[in-house]
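User: Let's play a game. I give you a shape written as tokens, and you guess the letters that built it. Ready? Here's round one.
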């Protein structure tokens, strides 16, 4: 059996015929090679480009989800801080209303500065500790007992 040689084989031993048939077959072979190369290039392009684009979009998605998680955490912290501030505002508004009341101010003065109303006697009683070995605190409990007024007939 004889061995077939293509046009790419070593040219030393063979002389290539230069006629229309050989040229047409060489052109056909070259066209097939070129078509195959183009096909491979298109396949590579249409597989690599979408993969790169999908990878880029997935990367963006992960970055946005991380950013969203951070912002949601900050939002929760801000909402918690807001509720704390609203509670503080409500308590301060209540204190303002109480301080506008003269009776409340008088009660505070009597409590803090040991002031008394007419006819009251103030007794200061130290608080008892559960552990008798403890040093007593300076805070004292006070008890106000109204003094009985004798009504005299005129």
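Assistant: Ready! My guess for every position:
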């Amino acid at each position: 059996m004889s061995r077939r040689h293509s046009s790419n084989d070593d040219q030393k031993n063979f002389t290539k015929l230069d006629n229309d048939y050989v040229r047409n077959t060489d052109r056909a072979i070259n066209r097939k090679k070129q078509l195959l190369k183009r096909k491979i290039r298109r396949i590579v392009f249409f597989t690599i480009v979408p993969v790169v684009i999908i990878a880029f979009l997935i990367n963006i998605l992960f970055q946005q989800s991380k950013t969203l998680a951070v912002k949601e955490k900050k939002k929760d912290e801000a909402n918690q801080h807001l509720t704390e501030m609203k509670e503080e505002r409500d308590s301060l508004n209540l204190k303002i209303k109480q301080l506008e009341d003269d009776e409340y101010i008088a009660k505070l003065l009597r409590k803090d500065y040991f002031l008394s109303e007419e006819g009251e006697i103030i007794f200061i009683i130290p608080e008892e500790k559960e552990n008798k070995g403890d040093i007593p605190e300076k805070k004292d409990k006070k008890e106000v007992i109204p003094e009985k007024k004798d009504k005299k007939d005129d």
